[in-house]
Amino acid sequence: MITHQKKRFLALLTILLMFIPLAGAPQPARAQAGTPFEVLAEINSLRIANGMQPLIENQYLNLAAQNHADWIAATGQGGHIGAGGSTAADRALAVGYGGGASVRVTENWARGPGLTAYSCVYDMWAPSSAHINNMLTTWHNEFGAGVALDSQGMTVYVVKFGHVVGSVPQQPPSVPSGPTGTPAPLIQPVATAQPNPDGSVIHIVRFGQTLWAIAEAYGISMITLLEQNYLTEDSAIYPDQELLIVPANLEVEEDVNEDDAEATPTPTEEPTPTPTRTPTRTPQAQAEEATPTPTEAPNPAGNVLANIFSGDTLWIGIGLVGVSLFGIALLFFTSSRLK
Q1: CB neighbours of residue 87 within 10 Å
Q2: Which tens digits make up the pLDDT trace of 174-221?
Q3: 133, containing H or E segment
Q4: CA–CA distance, 86 with 73 (Å, rounded to integer)
Q5: Running DSSP on this structure, what letter comes out for residue 97?
Q6: Nearest to 233 by CA among 164, 157, 141, 140
Q7: What is the pLDDT of residues 158-167, one digit of tens each?
């Protein structure tokens, strides 16, 4: 009897142990706070509020953005350098964006707990010059987005902006619908600055102005603006920052001086004839004339020895004397032998 009760107890205990894992409270599934469509709609709403054309959604950019969002969520590493050291353009080309043509791609990303698409666009990206430059771009014409959820429950947003070099995309017939609540325009019209006396033009950046808007306002290329200010396409600009639009022209000042010289000619005086004076004799000249330098009389023609033993011919005379003495000695020697 006791053995049978033990068996029943063990059987009940086993059944209870099997149901313990199921007794816990169910964990609610975590859902991301926004969708790719919502963040794209918010960006286009921002562009329309600022009088700009909406961007066109591109499925390749969507895929590249989603891949990077998933990588950030999986690794916990934020930034624009992704898997294998890839850049935003590398990731777009890897999924086929542009079909092998030359492309230009920039990128925004953000991460936060319960981050909505609206808060991502207006609270995290809009205050940053670099991010708002991308959202209000006049260079790119396409974009794509990706959203992911990391292990800590934080939402990751990635938006890619791009264009294929030389492409002329068609504008979409209507703006995608999505969450509204567009704030006041964040950009200001660019008022061009007047040239300085040296010919240079310096622009003072105001809040919300973009590099593209500044380049268009002054009628210069984006490349020129970037090179003159040592910037890149991803560089951020800040309010009150000075940008060099036109370098100083040193030739302008020279031209102005020449024009002034032509406009106001310097009066020239008529030359006054200088009277010709009769040269006067100086005391030194008169002294030279009063005391003529005595000239040496020529040597007599017959004074041969004096000519030979004078000046540079001294050694010639000595040589001749030596030869003569040698000849006389030879003569006496010869005559003595003959006797």
Answers
A1: 13
A2: 444 444 444 444 555 688 999 999 999 999 988 767 777 788 889 898
A3: helix 129-135
A4: 16
A5: G
A6: 140
A7: 999 999 887 7
Q: Which residues contact 212 (CB under 8 A, 6 or more apart)?
A: 133, 136, 137, 138, 139, 222
- What whole-number distance in Å separates Cα of residue 256 and Cα of residue 20? 95
Tokens describing residue 88: 């935003």
Checking DSSP bridges between strand 56-57 and strand 142-149, what pairing results, if any?
Answer: parallel
The answer to whether 143 and 107 are in contact (CB under 8 A) is: no
Tokens of 142: 């396409």
Contacts of 161 (CB under 8 A, 6+ apart): 55, 61, 105, 106, 107, 108, 134, 135, 137, 140, 142, 143
H-type alpha helices, 149-196:
none
Nearest partner of 82 among 55, 105, 59, judged by Cα: 105
| Strand intervals (E) in 165-319 | 201-204, 242-246
C-alpha to C-alpha distance for 64 and 338, rounded to whole angstroms = 134
Handedness of CA 284, 285, 289, 294 (dihedral sign): positive
Phi, psi of 268 (to 5 degrees): -105, 140
Answer whether 211's CB lies under 8 Å from 133's CB. yes
Helix (H, G, I), strand (E, B) or coil at 223: helix
Which residues is 104 bridged to in the sheet? 163
The helix or strand, by DSSP H or E, that contains position 315, with its residue range, turns out to be: helix 314-338
